[in-house]
Specification:
Largest sheet: 9 strands, antiparallel
CATH class of the largest domain: Mainly Beta
Number of domains: 2
Distance between the termini: 48 Å
Structural class: mainly beta
CATH topology of the largest domain: Immunoglobulin-like
Shape: globular
C-alpha cells in the first residue's frame, strides 16, 4: 500500500537526509497517558464539541492491536485530535468507547463546515514514532489532513491525501502501519451545528462511528478570534517583561551554567554546524551552507510545553557578517516543520510567520526595521507574552513591537535558530526565562 500511495502523490521526493543529518537525540518517551489529545479552542470562544461513544471495526485480524486517530478540523481555522491508546501500540478490541475523550474545535461566523475523520491502524514498528515523537506525528497528521482538505482535489482516501500533503514527514510512519479502517464525514453549518446522534462509515464498511455534536457558545460576548485570519490590529499592547507577583510563576531560568543544561537542549557536531553549550550560552556555529542560499541550524528545548505565559530570551551574533544573519525563536514548536517563527536580523529588523509542513503558510509581519532592535553583535532581549485566544505581544529590549492573534498551534515547545548567508557564523542564546500563569 505504501508504494501505491506514494506513487499517487505525483512527483514527490523524500527529503534528502544529507541536508540535515538525523540528530543524535534521545528518543521521545512514550506518553504516560492513554490518550494524546489536543483541542484547538478556548472556553471563551464559540466551539463545537464532538463525543464518540462507539467506534466499531468490521474486521480486525486476530491478535492485531489497533490504535485509533481522530481529527476534527475547520479547514480555514483550528484543529483538534486524539490518539488512543498513545502509551502502547494498540488495543486488541473491535469496538472503542471514546466518550471520555471529547474533542472541540473553534468556529467563527465564517466557518461553513468542519470535517471529522477517524482512522484505525495496526503498527508493525515504532521507529518513526520514537524518532519523531507521538506529539509531532499526531500534529503532522492533523495539519496534513487540513492541508489536504484545502487542496481542492479531494480523493476517496483521506489518509492518502494527508500523507501526500505532509511533504514527506509522514512517510516513515506510514511505512510502519497497516490500515484497518477509516471514515470521514463533513458537518455543515446549515440550520445550526447541533446534532443529537449522527453516524459515519467507510464505503467498504471497515469502520463506523456514532457521534454527538454540541454547539457551545462563547463564555462571554466577545467574538472569538478567527485563527485563519490573524491580524496586526492595533490591540492595546500592555505586556510586561517583569510578571506581576501572584500572576506568573517562573518555571525555567536557563543561564547555561548548570551541567544539566546539556540534557535539555539538542547538541550535535557535523561538518555543517555545531550546536553546543559553550561559555555560558547555547551556541550554534554554522560552518557550511547546506540549504542554499543560507546556512541554518536550530535546537529545541525538551520537557517544556507552553500554552500561555511569557518567554524572555537574550541572544546575539558573535561571529560572521552581521548584514547576513538572522536568529530568534520558534514558538509553539511541534516539530522541525511546524512552528511560529519569531526572528530578528542583525540589520535591526524583525519578522513573524506561521510555518506548517516546512513551508511559510502565513506571514504575520514581514521583515520590518525598528529602532529598538540592536544591530551588529549587541545583545537583543526578545520577549513574547502569549495570552488567551491566541493573543501574542512581542517586545524587543522592553519596547512593544507587535500585537497579533494566532491559534494555529494551541501549545508547543520552543527552539532557538540561527541562519546566515555567509559562514562561518555563530549565534548565541545567552539566557532564557519561561513564566507560566498560576491559574
Amino acid at each position: 500500500m505504501a508504494i501505491l500511495l506514494i506513487a499517487s502523490c505525483g512527483p514527490v521526493s523524500i527529503v534528502d537526509q544529507t541536508t540535515r543529518p538525523e540528530p543524535d537525540r534521545t528518543p521521545f518517551p512514550t506518553p504516560a497517558t492513554e490518550t494524546l489529545q489536543v483541542t484547538g479552542t478556548t472556553a471563551s470562544g464559540n466551539r463545537l464539541r464532538i463525543i464518540i461513544p462507539a467506534l466499531a471495526l468490521e474486521f480486525r485480524p486476530p491478535d492485531t492491536p489497533v490504535q485509533v486517530f481522530v481529527a476534527l478540523v475547520d479547514p480555514q481555522g483550528t484543529y483538534s485530535y486524539l490518539l488512543y491508546p498513545a502509551n502502547r501500540r494498540g488495543e486488541n478490541i473491535d469496538r472503542f468507547d471514546l466518550s471520555d475523550y471529547p474533542i472541540e474545535v473553534g468556529v467563527s461566523e465564517t466557518t461553513s463546515y468542519v470535517a471529522l475523520w477517524a482512522v484505525a491502524y495496526h503498527l508493525s514498528g515504532t521507529t518513526a514514532a520514537a524518532a519523531q515523537g507521538w506529539d509531532a506525528l499526531a500534529t503532522s497528521l492533523a495539519l496534513s489532513f487540513r492541508a489536504w482538505l484545502n487542496a481542492g482535489e479531494p480523493t476517496d482516501d483521506p489518509l492518502a491525501g494527508a500523507v501526500c500533503a505532509s511533504d514527506g514527514s509522514l512517510y516513515a510512519w506510514f511505512a510502519e502501519m497497516e490500515v484497518v479502517g477509516q471514515a470521514m464525514t463533513v458537518i455543515e453549518r446549515t440550520e445550526g451545528w447541533d446534532r443529537d446522534v449522527s453516524t459515519m462509515s467507510a464505503g467498504d464498511g471497515s469502520l463506523s462511528a456514532v457521534f454527538d455534536v454540541d454547539y457551545l457558545a462563547a463564555a462571554d460576548s466577545t467574538p472569538p478570534a478567527d485563527s485563519a485570519q490573524p491580524t496586526n490590529d492595533p490591540l492595546p499592547a500592555e505586556p510586561t517583561t517583569e510578571p506581576a507577583s501572584g500572576v506568573y510563576s517562573l518555571v525555567l531560568e536557563e543561564t547555561f551554567d548548570d551541567p544539566a543544561s546539556g540534557g535539555r537542549w539538542y547538541l550535535s557536531r557535523t561538518r555543517a554546524y555545531i550546536n553546543e553549550i559553550a561559555g555560558g550560552a547555547y551556541q550554534i556555529r554554522l560552518l557550511e551552507t547546506t540549504r542554499p542560499p543560507a546556512a541554518q541550524s536550530w535546537g529545541s528545548l525538551t520537557g517544556v510545553r507552553i500554552r500561555r505565559g511569557l518567554i524572555e530570551a537574550e541572544m546575539r551574533l558573535t561571529e560572521g557578517d552581521p548584514d547576513d544573519a538572522q536568529l530568534g525563536l520558534w514558538l509553539h514548536y511541534q516539530d522541525d516543520d511546524n512552528f511560529l517563527y519569531v526572528g530578528l536580523s542583525n540589520r535591526g529588523e524583525y519578522r513573524v510567520a506561521v510555518v506548517q509542513n516546512n513551508r511559510v503558510q502565513r506571514v504575520i509581519q514581514n521583515w520590518q526595521l525598528h529602532p529598538a532592535i540592536n544591530t551588529g553583535a549587541a545583545i537583543n532581549r526578545l520577549a513574547v507574552e502569549i495570552g488567551p485566544e491566541g493573543r501574542h505581544d512581542l517586545l524587543v529590549n522592553d519596547t512593544p513591537l507587535l500585537t497579533f492573534r494566532d491559534q494555529t498551534f494551541s501549545e508547543g515547545g520552543l527552539a532557538f535558530f540561527c541562519a546566515a548567508r555567509t559562514v562561518p557564523a555563530t549565534c548565541r542564546l545567552e539566557s532564557l526565562r519561561i513564566w507560566q500563569p498560576l491559574t
